[in-house]
Design goal:
The structure holds 2 protein chains of 2 kinds. Chain A is an alpha/beta fold. In chain A, 45% of the residues lie in helices and 22% in strands. The chains are: A alpha/beta, B alpha+beta.
Amino acid sequence: MYTLERVILIDDDQVNSFVCESIIRSISFAKEVLVFEQAEEAHNYLSHVASTRPDEFPELIFLDINMPGMDGWQFIQEYKKYPVAAIERCNLFVLSSAVDRKDILSAKSHKEVKDFISKPLSPEILEFIREEFLRPN
Amino acid sequence: MEQNKNTRSANSHRRTMRYIGTSFISIVVVLIAVCLFSYIRANLVQQEYGTKMLHAYQRLELVNTLFSNKELAQDLLREHIYTQDSTRKESLREKLAQAHTLNNTTIQKLDRLLQNQDQKALLASLVAERKAYYVHADSLLRLSDQNLLAEAQAYSRAHLGPFYSRHQALLLDLSESATDFSQKQADEALAVFSSTVNESVALFLFALLSIAGTAFTLRKVYRNLHKENALLNAEIQERTELQKALLRSQYQYKSLFNSNPVPMWIYDPNTYKILKVNRAAEQEYGYKKAEFLRKTVLDLRTLEDAERILSMTFPLDEESAFNETWHRRKNGSLFRVEVRSHSLPKEGSICPRLVVAVNVEEQIRASDKLKQNEKQLREVSSSIPGAVYQFQVDEQRKITFPFVSEGIKELYGVTPDEVYDNPDLLFEGIHPDDLELIRETTEHSNKGLTPWLVEYRLRSTHLNKWKWVRGHGLPTLKKDGSILYNGTLIDITDQKEAQQQLSTKEAKLRALLNSSPQAIYLLGQEMEVLSFNAVAAAEVKSCRLQDLVVGQSLLDYVDEVQRATFCEHHARALQGETVMYQTGQGNQWFEVAFRPVVTAENKTISVALSIHNISEQKKAIESIKRSELQLSHAHRIAKLGSWEYDFKGDLLTMSGTLFTIYGLPNDFRPTFQNVLARFHPDDRDAALAKFNEAVAAKRSVLSEHRVLLDDGTEKYLHHVIEPLCDTAGEVIKIQGTTQDITDLRKKEQEAIEAKNLFQSTIENIQEAILTADPDLTITYISPQCLKVSGYTEEVFLGKSAHWIQKIHPDDRCRLMNEILPKVVAGEPQQYELRIMDPGNNTRWLLLRASPKQDAQGKVVRIDCSAADMTQYKAAEANRAELIEQLLIQNQNLQQFTYIVSHNLRAPIANILGLTNVYNRKQPEALINQRVVDGLLKSAKLLDTTIRDLNEILSIRSRIHETQETVMFEELVNDILSSISEDVAQADATVSCDFSGAPSITSLRGYVLSIVQNLLINAIKYRSPERKLHLSLSTFCVSDYICLQVCDNGLGIDLAKEKDKIFGLYKRFHHTIEGKGLGLHLVKTQAELLGGKVEVESQVDVGTTFSVYFKS
């Protein structure tokens, strides 16, 4: 039984994406894992889904900050423009290798961002996410 | 008349009574007539009604009888039928026959009674029916007699039955008709009755109205009567009064005659017999009443008179009078009488005359006496100086002079007779001013009957001057209402003139006294005030607050303590001694003098006391003394002394202060020479020259010199030398004042020294000091100006329009419009401004301006200091630049740290993650291969990052290497050859133009790195759609040499990426491999060389990098 239906990974670091996807699948955290190396692509996909098939909108997004082209911050600005229903359904997490305090505070200042997670992703973190954020009310 | 009235009123009374009687009778008649009429009418109506009612009743009774008869007949018939008994039948038949008879009589009666036609017709039909009935009844009886009961019954039913019912109906009709008729008649009767009643009521009303009318007439009549009665009563009253009056007057006349004091009698003119005589006559003539009645009037006269009277006739009703006739008394004495007589109403045949005889003997005697008196009066009055007069004002204000003495002639120049003719003569010559006074006083005396006294001026025509006349008069009010004055007019001209002279003298004397500033009192023997002057009155008023009054003792105005002294001095003065002394205290001082007033006989009659207020005098003297003292004191303080040199006697006198100034002992005897010896040797000749100049020019000269005193001190002296000339113009004396001005000199010296010190201070400080007027005109500027501004002082002195030219144009506006107005308003300001120095260089000045205000807060001067702060400004700019650089460095370092931490941590995090994914249980698992690949990749990345870091850090450390000349051409060729593979692969063309700046002196490694990175960057991000073309060029821009690298590649969206373009590990293209290090290095190196990098780009057109190297 999968915890979630669909999880999105946005990161230009393929190694990290591989690690994340492997862990998610290993503990059957999500049925489907979509990986976007460019934030623009992820945005295009998500905006399309939000407007056409809102029920297929992912329940969880892991977003990297440091990316060429549209970076994590810019993506967050776009993400805010999605329909409210989509945003409410979804849990956006920033997943970054940075340990800079400024980045953490900046990420947490957006109410759409549920939490800042420092790489690497681990099954414990997923478990924590499941406990803290995904438990049905 | 009276009787007439009475008769008339009696007539009217009778007439009235007749009226009343008639009215009453007519009312009674009317009432009786009405009653009778009503009674008769009522009776008639009653009777008629009774008859009618009787008839009706009879009719009804007859009808009833008919009814009962019919019934009876019916019954009889029936009985007859049913009875078998023949007797019975017979009796019944008889009864029936009776009933018939009765019936017929009844019908006959009824027929008489009925008047109505209908009823008669009904009755006729009834009779007819009856006849038929009788026929039938007979038939029936017959049948019955035959004892044919059944037939009889049948017959009865067949014939009698219908008949019976018809009969019944007819009777009923008759009865009804009779009833109706009676009813009708009753109604009629009632109507008649009611009309009768109405008539009676109308009659009664008429009667009442006529009674009311009569009553009204009666009332009016009564009133008239009442009025007439009142008139009548009044007349009667009047008549009684008249009667009484008549009686009274008769009595009065009688008593008047009897008790009259004048002798009177009545005589018969025919016989001359005395008829009546009063008591006065009895007393006058000495005859008794009886004696008188025996005498004739002639007996009372002298003989000759009696004869004369006899010859005279006295017409009736005529008065006659005899003056001064002689009458004789009983004792024979004669006396003069005035006789008057007049006739009385005729009594019978006699026409009596009333004679009144008044004894005029006394009167005549008094008149004689009066004449004699008057004569005496004239004689007496003519001997009196002036005139005696009688002056009368009657009620009509007409004036007359009943008497004026002869003296009037001397006084007025008119005779008494002229005055009698024209009283106004006496008022003609009077002075117009006095005339009014006379009129007023006369008026006053007229009213109050007070003595009249007035002095007036009269024009004397022959002397041609004004005479003074004193008029005096005593008014008496006479019985006729006129006022009579008895008085005198006396010439008082001499007296008046003497008096005038005396009062003039007195006035002069008083003026003299009053003009004296002293208070002067003239005292009598007992110290009573006899006279005083104005000053004395004023003084007493002001000191004692009471008025000085003649006759009062002087002691009343003197203080208790002084009384004894005053008494003593007064006594001494009375002895002929003059006493003078001063008294007073504080500010009030008086000089008091008691002087005896002596007559020509050398006898002291009074004392003149004069009190002179000498307070002012005293004060003046004291103030002069004080001034002298103050002057010498002032001289001492001012160290001012005076001296005088007498040429002739070679005598030098000096004031005390000079001794002090020269430091000489008091017993020193100054001479010209020994004083001159004390002059400072250096100044002596000059001082002497000044002295001689004054003598020669004969005018005052000022001189200043030093003196050297015995104790060695040096002093400065200031002289004013004034020559004094005699009448010939020869200088005889020199006067002078000398002042010790040593202290002044010393202070001046100190001030000059202080000023010099101040001046040198100002000139030695760094700032330029300047002062300006409130209108911004610079009045002073310290010599430091040249150093600070590069200009001499003259350039800035003067108006603002003059020096404003030197201020930097950008600062002028703010200085003039903002800063300086505040200063002028009293607010200190500090302002940094620039000026252009003579070399046209900008100099920064710090201007501090503080306004100087006077006590009222008005700005009178502006003090400023200007400091050169050009160097400070330069240093400040330098510092700002440094700070900016430091900030950038710091920022770079932060970014570097951040990037490094991120880029170092990313591969490590990956490695950590991969280890998690690694399937340890099945090392051959497919995923493990990928994990190992990932591990390798991460490790390589880590390695690259560390290498990059090393490079970056090493580049920074190479900045201290020696600089060399780098030829751009050569450099670019070296690079192109090192990357020739890439260039060839990209098929790029490169064009270079370094003519603008062929070489640069710099760190070769840096320049190489920069150009290499830019070229690699351009090749890396070339457009796949175009053939890459690179163009490199250099040129000089002010302090820099600019190297431009221009490509036609993908371009960068600068709007989005401008901030990141030179950031470490920033990439803009996903498709192309890159670390984001190259441009970061370019920027870092350019900045390390003191230059900068700029970029211009357009997406899909190309990018141009401009690198500025410091030349």
